[in-house]
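USER:
Make up one protein:

ASSISTANT:
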Amino acid sequence: MKQLIESFTRQLRHALEIGERAAVTFSGPKYNNVVLAGMGGSGICSSILQAYVADKLKVPVVVQKSYTMPAFVGPDTLVIASSFSGNTEETLSVVRQAMKAEATVAFVTSGGEMLRTAQANSMPHIVIPSDAGQPRACLGFTLVQQLYLLHYAGLLDDAFKTELGQSINLLEEQAGSIKVQASALANSLRGRLPILYACDALAPVALRFQQQLNTNAKQLAHVNVLPEASHNEVEGWQQPAELFGKLAVLYIKTGYDHPRAQLRMALARPVLERQVQDVLEVEAMGATLLEQMLYLIHLFDWVSLYLAGLNKVDPNTTDNINYLKVELSKV
């Protein structure tokens, strides 16, 4: 896992090369809506993409992390299905329903049933390397190809390419400081349940961090989003008081947060500080939202790796996930 995290910028560069070389054409009608289908590492890429394009696309984008397809899907829908293995059962279920609804289906995968389906039906697809390592460490490959598919479909301009290049430069420039910051944060979260708060723009980044803590550090975490959390969860910081000593609050901040959401976060801080020892903060670096997202994703990946070391667990294993997959395959 350490090598995969260290090679993140190389992965992004390789992903750009793959996207540029991709021979993808779309012959369908003008798309009135987009559905991004995926689970786990692929699904979080869809959530990040949805947040990034929220102010760029003129059509609604829905992320689908389930077995079912929304009823509105039809011939004017673009469905982008992502699965590293190409065999994710929930995503395959969505693909079959989308094809039945005569939607345009495009794929990001390394192989499996999805690649066979795409090739057999001459459907748009981009193939990512099958030897890239753990699927959850392939965010760069999947996210970048999703961006390219939106671009080739005529929905997204090519500004993302420049932003990706800037993101790579930022991560390379800050490589040393990122590790130092990640190590300090990991030590602050050791032995505690991280409570992660972010505003809307960074909600999927916070969720990605939770997932990396789960899978790499084998540690639970909780995520909530501002401003919504200030309408309900803030009131819950009263019970059970005996647990508060085992909690660690982390504010994940960006200049893209809405000013009123920032104010709510600031006003909630004294409430939290009455119950926990420290309210930690991490602020994104970068000139664009994409740069800031990728900066935090890389930082938090290092945190999860350092926490795995502190927790004395193997970040490469996923025994509980594998158990569920085996048992599901029997039914």
Observations:
- The radius of gyration is 20 Å.
- The beta strands are 33-37, 61-64, 77-83, 104-109, 125-127, 193-199, 222-226, 247-253, 279-283.
